[in-house]
Amino acid sequence: MKKIELTEGITQEMINAEKAKLPEGVTREMINAAKVKGLDVKLAEVPVDDEGTTRTFLVCVPSRTVLGQFRRFMDADPKKADEILVKNCLLSHKEEVLADDELFTGVMSTLSELIVIRKGTIKNV
Predict the structure, then answer these.
(1) What is the CATH number of the domain that holds 83?
(2) What domain of life does the native source organism fall in (predicted)?
(3) For 79, which of 7, 15, 31, 103 is 20 to 30 Å away at the CA?
């Protein structure tokens, strides 16, 4: 393994801290608070324009309760279903996303990827 020489005054801790930087609007405290509640926390990168610019948001995987509420309104009132998912699973920048239709749609699309449905198989016995 090749040893990397550090420039004088730069420590390995400084490099590690730089790598561990969180996106704007996301704090270590937010992440820790969500984890204490038992949430599966993720960073979601969402496109914000056609040029490839993205924003990173703190989200959590929807719980069974949230999924139940989401499914309840999915067919009857899709707008309400989307808001349930975003309001319960978006942990950062919530007001900004709720106020911007394009951001809301992008976050909603990204959150829907967190809903994992595994398909089983049925076999005759």
Answers:
(1) 3.30.2220.10
(2) Bacteria
(3) 31
DSSP run (H or E) holding 59: strand 54-60
> Residue written as tokens 């949430």?
39
Domain count, the chain: 1
Is residue 106 in a domain? yes
Say how far apart CA 24 and CA 21 lie, in whole Å.
9
End-to-end CA distance of the chain: 55
111 C-beta neighbours (distance < 10 Å), count: 24
The SS3 assignment for 47 reads: strand
HSE-up of 94 (CA within 13 Å, CB side)?
A: 13
Predicted TM-score (pTM) of the model is 0.75
Q: Is residue 38 part of a domain?
A: yes
Q: Which residues is 58 bridged to in the sheet? A: 43
Helix (H, G, I), strand (E, B) or coil at 51: coil
Domain that holds residue 96: 12-112
